[in-house]
């Protein structure tokens, strides 16, 4: 099968940006191992260029690894939107799901409308009338990879005014739009979901364990925990898949919420839902990732491995699902070859 690997060129030299190329190399190697013909196609704001390249290439399927466009995750939905417009089958979620989940504020509104628990939030605006006092964590609305999350990210607030200055400082330092989310001081879980022949399947539950964290140190998966290999946080935030019997009810609720989220957003292909679980056992969704990282050492691949899929098998399954998906309303190009190759 001829497969176009669609990806964005890193906008800078941060490790989270360079990780895109790690994914491209790993996926290309896996596709070669399955006797496919992968060809990398860089995606940018020049949509005509991407359209021309893809039209000339005529791939059987496009493996979409685009995480940001023009240096912003806000525009990641442009890649699936173009592919839908061209009638090309592709992996992962469609443009609408990507658009709704990329904005954390839009994401929270979808969750709230669907009755799925998500922490309260604020933009620090005086007209907010339903503000809930408590601790809040400052987050970028559009950027992912824990950008800007550190020990200064959690603040106490009794009104929106208490958040205005901290949010302004974040905008000045990192750029873009920021908001504050109610901080759930509890356990953190990543739930990977992948399409299957009978619908979405929840992969083994993963919990982030904060080892050796003092009471004074925030238990969050911040930027250092993800990307700074020399940091305490990176060394001591570890993933586990084994749980005692007493966690059975919590794990069941996590699965139910992740699948409810899948339906609410119209997710397809594969996705990851991140939770914080409060002391009373309530799972609160803090992020929906419609295009999660597929690096071999990332959480999604780890969950797949735990389910018995090595990385090559995972890439093959994602490709098979994408090749058969007719979400764009047009018949996939060379659909017979796609499904059987």
From TrEMBL:
<dbReference type="InterPro" id="IPR011761">
    <property type="entry name" value="ATP-grasp"/>
</dbReference>
<dbReference type="InterPro" id="IPR013815">
    <property type="entry name" value="ATP_grasp_subdomain_1"/>
</dbReference>
<dbReference type="InterPro" id="IPR011095">
    <property type="entry name" value="Dala_Dala_lig_C"/>
</dbReference>
<feature type="domain" description="ATP-grasp">
    <location>
        <begin position="108"/>
        <end position="320"/>
    </location>
</feature>
<protein>
    <submittedName>
        <fullName>ATP-grasp enzyme, D-alanine-D-alanine ligase</fullName>
    </submittedName>
</protein>
<keyword id="KW-0436">Ligase</keyword>
<keyword id="KW-0067">ATP-binding</keyword>
<dbReference type="Pfam" id="PF07478">
    <property type="entry name" value="Dala_Dala_lig_C"/>
</dbReference>
<dbReference type="GO" id="GO:0008716">
    <property type="term" value="F:D-alanine-D-alanine ligase activity"/>
</dbReference>
<keyword id="KW-0547">Nucleotide-binding</keyword>
<dbReference type="GO" id="GO:0005524">
    <property type="term" value="F:ATP binding"/>
</dbReference>
<dbReference type="GO" id="GO:0046872">
    <property type="term" value="F:metal ion binding"/>
</dbReference>
<comment type="similarity">
    <text>Belongs to the D-alanine--D-alanine ligase family.</text>
</comment>
């Amino acid at each position: 099968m001829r497969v176009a690997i669609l990806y964005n060129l890193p906008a800078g030299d941060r490790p989270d940006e360079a990780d895109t190329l790690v994914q491209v190399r790993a996926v290309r190697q896996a596709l070669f191992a399955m006797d496919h013909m992968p060809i990398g196609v860089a995606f940018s704001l020049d949509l005509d260029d991407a359209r021309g390249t893809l039209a000339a290439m005529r791939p059987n399927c496009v493996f979409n690894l685009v995480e940001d466009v023009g240096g912003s995750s806000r525009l990641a939905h442009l890649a699936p939107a173009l592919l839908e417009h061209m009638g090309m089958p592709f992996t992962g979620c469609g443009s609408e799901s990507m658009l709704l989940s990329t904005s954390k504020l839009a994401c929270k509104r979808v969750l709230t409308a669907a009755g799925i628990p998500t922490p309260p939030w604020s933009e620090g605006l005086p007209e907010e009338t339903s503000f809930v006092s408590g601790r809040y964590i400052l987050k970028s609305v559009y950027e992912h990879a824990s950008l800007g999350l550190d020990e200064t990210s959690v603040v106490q607030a009794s009104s929106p005014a208490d958040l205005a200055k901290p949010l302004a400082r974040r905008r000045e330092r990192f750029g873009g739009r920021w908001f504050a989310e109610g901080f759930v001081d509890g356990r953190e879980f990543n739930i990977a979901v992948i399409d299957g022949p009978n619908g979405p399947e929840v992969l083994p539950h993963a919990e982030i364990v904060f080892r050796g964290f003092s009471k004074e140190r925030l238990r969050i998966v911040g930027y250092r925990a993800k990307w700074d290999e020399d940091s305490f946080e990176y060394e001591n935030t570890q993933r586990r898949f084994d749980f005692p019997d007493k966690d059975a009810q919590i794990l069941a609720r996590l699965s139910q919420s992740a699948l409810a989220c899948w339906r609410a957003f119209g997710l397809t292909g594969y996705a990851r839902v991140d939770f914080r679980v409060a002391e009373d056992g309530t799972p609160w969704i803090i992020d929906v990732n419609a295009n999660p990282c597929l690096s071999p050492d990332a959480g999604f691949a780890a969950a797949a491995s735990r389910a018995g899929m090595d990385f090559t098998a995972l890439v093959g399954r994602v490709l098979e699902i994408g090749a058969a998906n007719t979400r764009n309303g047009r018949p996939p190009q060379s659909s017979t070859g796609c499904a059987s190759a």
